[in-house]
TrEMBL record:
Source species taxonomy: Bacteria, Pseudomonadati, Myxococcota, Polyangia, Nannocystales
An example molecular function term from Gene Ontology annotations: transmembrane transporter activity
Keyword entries, A-Z: Membrane, Transmembrane, Transmembrane helix
UniProt cross-references to Pfam families, sorted A to Z: MFS_1
Protein known as: Major facilitator superfamily MFS_1
Length: 458
């Protein structure tokens, strides 16, 4: 005979087990429904839905963190001194230059299943440090500390967002073939757009209702959530994979090679050199627009909370438009018009925008061009550019790609920053600078068209 307390205990354990089973079943059913919805709106094949959904969730968490920090970073850039922006871009480039060999060493010794947590948790610890400093728990509340915290945070954020996003796309280039990437990278980008919508909304709300200093802590938590999605993607089986990647490695296998292999790999590959030229011209246009935006916004708004909220509003508008395009058009558009036009679309829009800005260099036109540029970048140009990395070997996907996405990108920022400052010192106004940039964007479009034309379907 069982005593009453034993019967009660067994009944309690049974009830709890049943509840947990129902809860797991409910979560599983929700996951299946999400996959079915994806298959209805996108060109998905059997076995791809779960992996695409997990990849989108990973990207969503990353872009939510990045989107929450971006308005704070832009506000910090103004707080650190608008006239010192070229120094901040130079410092970012130097930090990137020092970080790439360290990252190359990590890539050589870690498989992707280990590399991603190492990188994410390193940045999460940095974010916790910023959270402590911004709350005045370390260093006090002096103006000097606030100014230097703003400058360091700007540089750090510029390094952070490129490294984690570059690593994400490196992993995806490992997992998908070129043909599959054309179909699916835009759809996976939907997750990033959802995150990029949620991020600025969080950033603006926290900045106005609580304090911008809480944003680093929120971003650190989101980085940890992104690891959950990454692991889920690695566990998803492929029932009937379409066009499997021939050299898809075991996740725990080290990538190998030398820590400084990125530069030789870049110089040996015409494709990577072409991507390098494309990224340099892209960053030139982006940096000029960023400097122009900082100049105009600094005059228009003086309060840090208001500036952060305005930048968040711009980000929210950009990503709402991007989400609609990525969900419904990107995958089919890249397949329909090809890589050449996909890569040339953004530069052509920028050339037109710079021409309009040369005629009317005002806030409304500038913000309109920024929105148009970023929508085209996220919805079309970035997925098309990432497809190119499916055509190189595994070491190049991680090492040379990180060099291009970080050092080359931020090097272009630094050079353009100094050029912008020098041209302004000579007396050329914002309209004149925009006029100079229009033909540069035209050259960029030509590079994109040639780069896409030379790539055969894989």
């Amino acid at each position: 005979m069982l005593r009453r307390d034993q019967v009660t205990t067994r009944w309690t354990h049974s009830a709890r087990s049943k509840f947990r089973g129902q809860r797991r079943s409910s979560r599983g059913l929700g996951w299946v429904r999400a996959i079915v919805l994806l298959q209805r709106i996108a060109d998905l094949r059997p076995g791809e839905g779960a992996k695409v959904l997990a990849a989108g969730a990973w990207f969503c968490a990353l872009m939510t963190a990045n989107g929450a920090l971006r308005p704070l970073r832009d506000s910090m850039a103004v707080a650190g001194g608008v006239n010192d922006l070229h120094w901040l871009f130079t410092a970012t480039f130097l930090v990137m230059l020092a970080a790439v060999p360290i990252y190359g060493l990590a890539v050589a010794r870690c498989g992707r299943a280990r590399l991603v947590p190492v990188v994410h948790r390193f940045f999460a610890l940095n974010l916790l440090g910023f959270f402590v400093v911004m709350h005045g728990l370390v260093g006090g509340e002096s103006d000097a500390v606030a100014t230097w915290t703003a400058r360091v945070f700007f540089v750090w954020t510029s390094v952070f967002n490129l490294f984690v996003i570059s690593l994400f796309w490196s992993v995806l280039a490992d997992l998908f073939s070129g043909q599959d990437a054309r179909r699916l990278f835009g759809l996976i980008g939907v997750g990033g757009s959802i995150g990029a919508i949620a991020g600025p909304a969080i950033g603006g709300a926290v900045a106005l209702w609580v304090s911008p200093s809480w944003l680093p802590l929120i971003a650190a938590l989101l980085l940890e959530l992104s690891l959950v999605a990454m692991r889920r993607m690695g566990r998803e089986p492929s029932e009937a994979p379409a066009s499997p990647v021939p050299d898809d490695p075991v996740p725990d296998d080290p990538i190998g090679g030398r820590a400084f292999a990125a530069i030789p790999e870049l110089l040996r590959s015409p494709l990577l050199l072409g991507i390098c030229a494309y990224v340099l011209l892209l960053t030139m246009s982006s940096t000029v627009l960023y400097f122009m935006q900082a100049q105009i916004v600094a005059v228009s708004f003086t309060d840090e909370g208001t500036r952060t909220a305005v930048f968040a509003g711009v980000d929210l508008s950009v990503n709402a438009l991007t989400l609609a395009i990525q969900a419904l058009l990107t995958g089919r558009l890249i397949q329909r018009i090809g890589l050449s036009w996909s890569l040339a679309t953004l530069p052509l829009l920028c050339a037109l925008g710079f021409a309009c800005l040369a005629i009317a260099p005002v806030l409304l036109v500038l913000l309109g061009l920024q929105i148009l540029r970023r929508v085209a970048s996220y919805a079309v140009s970035r997925p098309a550019r990432e497809v190119l990395y499916t055509m190189v070997d595994r070491s190049q996907r991680y090492k040379a790609k990180s060099l291009i996405d970080t050092v080359v990108y931020r090097g272009g920022d630094a050079l353009t920053g100094w050029a912008f400052t020098g041209i302004k010192a000579l007396g050329l106004g914002l309209g004149g600078i925009a006029l100079v940039m229009a033909p540069v964007a035209g050259l960029w479009a030509g590079v994109g068209a040639l780069l896409g034309r030379d790539q055969k379907s894989t």
